[in-house]
User: Which sequence fits this backbone?
């Protein structure tokens, strides 16, 4: 049996509507703050999202550059699907207001999925805001999304990896502290305790997640041309120590 859901987010950013549009309706823009890989074709009215070898295809329902963008995913065999609607409005004095609606039909485990989506959507909308205000129009040159072990009570380890304590809060100083990675200073961003904690440096954003079904994940977007393969290996090794 399917269950309808809806998650709404509204936030302001110090970015123009054109910058917001580029971040949500182009593959390189979306790949600079979201997970997986996206391809968006406004002319063909199609969007695809690929992650871990699975591809979801969506139809673009609304396409008003700088104002409105919405998609609806092809339903799965069980009837489940997801849809997104984005509304962008210029603010008096500069910046933009972004309104996002995530809706659709969930499956039998809908309550746990919905609770995860409410928290996760908020975290990724915050990550979008961080990208727009600190990195755009740069786009990510590479990224990582590493699932790790299933563990409980990992908040202290997540925050310690970013040089913060369990009382981590947005705007506080951060210092990347993972064995095998050169320490780097930054700023704590995107705290949703005890599930998400992020860090922004001059050339990267990191987001550590205690996610759906207690899976621990390490994610990052990199905005420079350095080879990050050794760093990604170090993050994978760190995940094995969590818990």
Assistant:
């Amino acid at each position: 049996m399917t269950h309808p859901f809806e998650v709404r987010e509204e936030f302001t950013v110090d970015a123009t509507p054109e910058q917001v549009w580029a971040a949500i309706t182009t593959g390189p823009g979306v790949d600079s703050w979201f997970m997986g890989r996206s391809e968006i074709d406004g002319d063909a009215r199609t969007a695809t999202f690929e992650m871990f070898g699975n591809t979801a295809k969506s139809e673009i329902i609304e396409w008003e550059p700088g104002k409105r963008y919405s998609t609806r995913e092809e339903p799965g065999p069980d009837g489940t699907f997801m849809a997104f609607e984005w509304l962008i409005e210029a603010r008096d004095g500069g910046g933009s207001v972004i309104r996002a609606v995530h809706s659709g039909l969930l499956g039998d485990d809908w309550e746990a999925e919905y609770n995860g989506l409410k928290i996760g959507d908020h975290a990724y909308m915050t990550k979008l805001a961080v990208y727009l205000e600190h990195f755009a129009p740069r786009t990510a040159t590479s990224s990582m999304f590493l699932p790790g072990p299933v563990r409980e009570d990992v908040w202290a380890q997540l925050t310690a990896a970013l040089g913060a304590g369990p009382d981590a809060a947005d705007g506080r100083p951060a210092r990347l502290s993972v064995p095998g990675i050169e320490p780097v200073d930054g700023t704590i961003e995107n705290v949703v305790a005890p599930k998400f904690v992020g860090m922004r440096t001059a050339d990267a954003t990191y987001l550590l997640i205690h996610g759906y079904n207690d899976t621990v994940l390490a994610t990052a977007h990199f905005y420079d041309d350095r080879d990050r393969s050794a760093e990604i290996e170090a993050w994978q090794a760190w995940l094995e120590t969590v818990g």
Notes: The chain has a mean pLDDT of 96. DSSP finds five helices and 13 strands in the chain.
